[in-house]
Amino acid sequence: MRTFRVELGPRSHPVHVGAGILDRLGELAVEAGIKPTRAALISDTNVAPLFANPVQTALRKSGFEVTTIEIAAGESSKNLEMLNAVYDRMIDTELDRNSVVFGLGGGVVGDLAAFAAATFLRGIAMVQVPTTIVGQVDSALGGKTAVNHRRGKNLIGAFSQPRMILADVATLKTLPDREFREGLAEVIKYGVIMDAPMIADLERDLDAILARDLNTLEAVVERSLRHKAHVVENDEREGGLRKILNFGHTVGHAIEASAGYGNYLHGEAVAIGMIAALRLSHLEAGLPTGDVQRVTTLIARAGLPSEMPRKWNTADFIAALRLDKKRVEDGVEFVLVDALGHALTKKLSFNTITSALG
C-alpha cells in the first residue's frame, strides 16, 4: 500500500492506494481520526452488489454502525432529485453531526455523496472510496462536490475536503472495458499539463494498463493523485493554478450536456475536449504539431474517441459552452499547453473556440 497526505492545514488528510485494501477501510478510517459512529455508505446499483458487503464488514469490525444508501448508476442520478432522496435516507438513518458518509463508487457517487455530506446538518465527515479510474485519479481528491443542473454540469456544489481517500485498484478489475478506458483520459491529462515524462511512460506501459496489471495500475493511480494533490495544496479553491486541471473539460462538459448526460461517458467527452484543446494550443500557444499528434495517437491507443459528435454545433452546445465556470464576459479562460508538461490559461472568445472545432 502506498500512502501520502494532502497537506491543507486543518483539512489535511491521508490518501491510501493499493490492491486488496478495502478490508482495511474501517481500520484506516480510525487511524485518520474518525471515531466509530453511525455511518452512511452511499453506493450505486452497479458497485453495491460487488463491494457493499465487504465494506460494511470492514467498517463494522472497527465499530461503525453502517446503513447502505443505493442510488441508480449513471450520470443521470447526479441531480437535485436524487440528492433529496439521499437526504431522506440520511434523515431516516438518524445521522448526526458526529456521523460519517462513505462514498463507494465512481465519480457520480463520489460527487453526490460528498455534496450530501458537505450540506447535511451544515457538514459531516466524508471518506472517499473510489472504484473507477476517473474516481481514483481525479474526482475523489480535491474537495469539489457537486450535482448537475439541467442547464450545465456541476453547477450546484461546494468545496469540502474528505477526511480520507482509499483507492483499491483491485476494484478496477470489475469495470466494463468502456468505463475502464474512459478514465485514462484523466491520466493522460496529467502528463500533458504537468509531467511530460509521464507521456513516454504511458506510451511504454499502456498495454500493461489495459491488461489491468495491478502493480502498474497502483503506480499510475498514485502518480496521478500526487500530481493533483500538488495542485490542490497550492490552490484549493481554484483561484489560479488549479484551473489547469480543467484541460479538455470546457469542450468536454459542453459535449456531455448537449448530447444528454450518459450518451458520452465523462472521460470520453474529456478525450475529445483534450484533442480540441491541443489544436487550440497549437493555434494560440505554439504547441508543436508533433506533440499534438503524439498525444492524439496515445488517446486513440487508449480506445478513446477523438472526433466531435456529428451535428455538434447546436444551440444546446453553445449554451452549455457559455455556462462554463471559467467564463469571462464573451469568452472563457481556456486551458492550453505551450509545451507538453506546461499548461497556461488564455482568454479565448467563444467564436475562436467553436471555429477551431471544425
Report on the structure:
With 358 residues, the chain is of the alpha/beta class. It is 47% helix and 21% strand. The chain contains 13 helices and twelve strands. A seven-stranded mixed β-sheet has the order 1-2-9-6-5-3-4, sandwiched between helices. It has a three-stranded antiparallel β-sheet with strand order 10-11-12. It has a two-stranded antiparallel sheet with strand order 7-8. Helix 2 links the parallel strand 3 and strand 4. It is globular, with a radius of gyration of 19 Å.
Write the layout of secondary structure elements.
Blueprint: E1 2-6, E2 13-18, H1 25-31, E3 38-44, H2 48-61, E4 65-71, H3 80-92, E5 100-105, H4 107-119, E6 125-130, H5 133-139, E7 144-149, E8 152-159, E9 164-168, H6 177-194, H7 196-210, H8 214-234, H9 249-259, H10 266-285, H11 289-301, H12 315-322, E10 327-328, E11 331-339, E12 342-349, H13 350-356
Parallel strand pairs: 2-9, 3-4, 3-5, 5-6, 6-9
Antiparallel strand pairs: 1-2, 7-8, 10-11, 11-12
